[in-house]
Amino acid sequence: MTLIRSLGRLVVIVGILLGLTWGDIDSALASPVDQAQIDEATQLWQTSAHAFNEINCSSCHESKETKEFVAQPGVESCQTCHEQDVDTFLLGQHGIRMLEGETPLTPAMARLPMQPDAMNRQMTCNSCHDVHSVNTMQAAVDSCLSCHSDNHSLNYGNSRHADLFAVDRNLPRPSANSVSCATCHLPRHETGSGDNAITLVNHNNTYTLLPRDRMVKDVCMNCHGMEYSYNSIFDDDLVEANFDAPPTLALETFELVRDFEARRTDQGDG
């Protein structure tokens, strides 16, 4: 009983399912994980999308090569099921260091202001997604604000976008009507059609930042008109305020287009 209490019920069961010896299980749990943590992880998992899809403890805590118990799975474990998500994550600022064989990015390395208590947090899948609850509502906004402390991020709560997201707070995941940090910086896209349609998320958080035209095309114009979108995204003050009001900028380009169309119509070319 002493051994079982020290290992924790969940890990003992997982170890047995994986065919590990008691020595292997005891060694795997050298890290400080107490029974309360194990019970909390089990409870979170039981109502998660992973549990509903029969992704159990061994799916993540078993090495695919050696079949040995893994106490703290890395991005490789996520990649076995979420290949596209991890591949795009590794192309963005959050993950590029790992793609290059370096240690994960930490907020302490960032140029933008970051939350003081997050400075040493390593940017991996687990940084935004709770590994057991897999709560995408949390990942869409709360995870971002747990690190980012720049004006654009902090002003999100003052925007109409935040109001739309708040409506979905009690849902298991953001709806198509939500506008979160992830909506703009990790945009969704669909592949296939009909019953074969699959919604994917581009986890490359750098992709829609520059050029700004890409944000307009891939994100803003999903909801707004082209002129509204361009006048918003190229207004630096409005961007910093996180789009808390309609745009006041009037790009000359659109006036030139309208003048051209008017001349063409007058000349009978329309």
Architecture overview:
- There is one protein chain.
- The protein is mostly helical and 270 residues long.
- It has two domains: 73-209, no CATH class; 211-270, no CATH class.
- The chain contains 18 helices and two strands.
- The protein has a two-stranded antiparallel sheet.
- β1 (188-191) and β2 (198-201) form a beta hairpin.
- α15 packs antiparallel against α16 (226-233).
- The longest helix has 15 residues, at 252-266.
- The chain starts with a helix and ends with a helix.
- Residues 1-9 and 15-22 have low confidence and may be disordered.
Tell me briefly what this model is:
With 270 residues, this protein is mainly α. The chain is 46% helix and 3% strand.
Rg (CA only): 23 Å
- Overall residue-averaged pLDDT value: 86
The strand line-up of the biggest sheet is 1-2
Strand content: under 5%
Gap between N and C termini? 86 Å
Query: What structural category characterises the helix and strand content?
Result: mainly alpha
Series of H and E elements: HHHHHHHHHHHHHHEEHHHH
Percent in helix? 40-55%
Q: Give the helix tally.
A: 18
For the sheet with most strands, the description reads:
2 strands, antiparallel
Q: Which parts are unreliable, with pLDDT below 50 for 5 consecutive residues or more?
A: 1-9, 15-22
DSSP summary, beta strand count: 2
Quickly count the domains. Answer: 2
Shape label:
elongated
